[in-house]
Specification:
Length: 401
């Protein structure tokens, strides 16, 4: 232990400066891209599964436990794979992302579950676990493969410098530790970047189109790492395996480019299948989830994240919602001065205005949902809502109260 200097110990925690030129050019973006893809896919699939299962804390616990469990299993399997297949698994990640997205969105159709029907705990656990299993397997394997790729490259560089076999054997544990630490740091940076990108950018318009774009990035990065001319992984450009790998990359690239053009059509087809028997009027995305408006028999229903928010026009329900509580609490016309409405259909506002209050506060956190409600109200009710009487507050109702 006394023979190990401070510089040797520093290797355990710091990526060697001598590797920066090579790694920054190739492996750094690859490992960071895997981290970004992991965070974005986890967020996307978690939101999608919550919509399918009308999510609560139990649903979230099942999803996260399944994600962690199968990622751990993937890491164990990755340790037993002797060959360095990092680009191959990165390529398979691009295939799995799209297929799993379509599978998650089609779970209700597969199980023949109608709108508003709750899925039992057993199907929820089984589908949450085994739907995410392939993606989590690959994520776990990719981390181990990244460590092996980093370690093999570091050992190769030391060997090319003519260092003695004895020195190579003595430095092997440090190289392994350095590889694990470095890849973990890069993956963590990617996770943080993925969280930042989703929170401030992709949450506003993340869709199947964005997923196809990330698949293209992963395909391109896998091809770069596999390319023998860069000497990242030993191989020849005339090698049949490399030619086959390039053909797969070209085929998947074509598939993703076509997907970019037809992504909206695919999403619309999935939504129509989910609301079979109804006319899908519009589908919007907000930072709080998907907003779908459907129509049948002159009635419009607005769904947020698969849950019914309200149906309009329903004047009888609006009258019962307003006048029965007023009678129950013996409110006279003079007593109705300031009224608070927490979300819901705008038809209620017209009934409240019959009491001539000073102000009505309509509180709803989602601006896009209110815009959809406004559009439906104008289509079904000719009586305008006076803005001087109704103040709209875009805030969480609990905080407002």
């Amino acid at each position: 232990m006394s023979n190990i200097g401070h510089s040797d110990l520093g290797i355990l925690f710091v990526i060697r400066i001598s590797d920066f030129g090579f790694m920054r050019r190739t492996f750094f973006p690859a490992f960071i891209l895997v981290g970004i893809t992991s965070t974005l896919s986890q967020t996307l699939f978690t939101r999608a599964l919550i919509q399918v299962f009308y999510g609560n804390e139990l649903c979230l616990g099942v999803i996260f436990s399944g994600w962690l469990f199968f990622t751990g299993i993937g890491s164990i399997i990755g340790r037993k794979i002797q060959k360095i297949l990092f680009p191959e698994f990165m390529l398979s990640l691009s295939i799995i992302l799209i297929l799993e997205f379509l599978l998650v969105k089609s779970i209700k159709n597969i199980l023949n579950i109608r709108m508003g029907e709750l899925i039992g705990p057993v199907p929820m656990i089984l589908f949450s676990f085994f739907t995410l299993a392939p993606l989590c397997f690959i994520m776990g394997i990719l981390f181990v493969q990244g460590c092996k790729l980093y370690h093999s490259r570091g050992a190769g560089e030391q060997g090319s410098k003519g260092e003695s076999p004895q020195h190579l054997r003595s430095s092997a544990p440090l190289l392994k530790t350095e590889a694990i630490t470095s890849v973990y740091i890069l993956d963590a940076i990617g996770d943080m970047l993925g969280g930042i990108l989703f929170a401030y950018l992709f949450i506003h318009f993340f869709s199947l189109t964005t997923l196809f774009l990330f698949c293209l990035f992963n395909i391109f990065m896998a091809w770069i790492i596999k390319n023998p001319t860069l000497n990242l992984i030993q191989g020849e450009i005339r090698n049949p395996k490399y030619r086959l790998f390039s053909a797969y990359c070209l085929l998947l690239t074509t598939y993703c480019i076509l997907g970019l053009f037809f992504a909206k059509n695919i999403e619309q087809m999935i939504i129509k299948q989910a609301y079979k028997g109804y006319n899908v009027v519009s589908c919007k995305r907000s930072i709080y989830g998907d907003i779908v408006v459907i129509n049948r028999d002159n009635l419009y229903s607005l769904y947020q994240n698969g849950v019914l928010s309200f149906t309009t026009p329903t004047p009888l329900i609006a009258e019962e919602t307003v006048h029965f509580p007023a009678l129950m609490y013996k409110c006279g016309i003079k007593d109705m001065k300031r009224i608070l409405v927490l979300g819901g259909t705008l038809e209620v506002l017209n009934e409240l205005l019959k009491y001539n209050p000073e102000i009505v506060y309509y509180v709803e956190i989602d601006k896009k949902l209110v815009a959809q409600a406004d559009s439906l109200y104008r289509q079904t009710d000719k009586m305008p809502i006076p803005p001087e009487k109704v103040k709209r507050v875009y805030q969480d109702g609990r905080k407002f109260v």
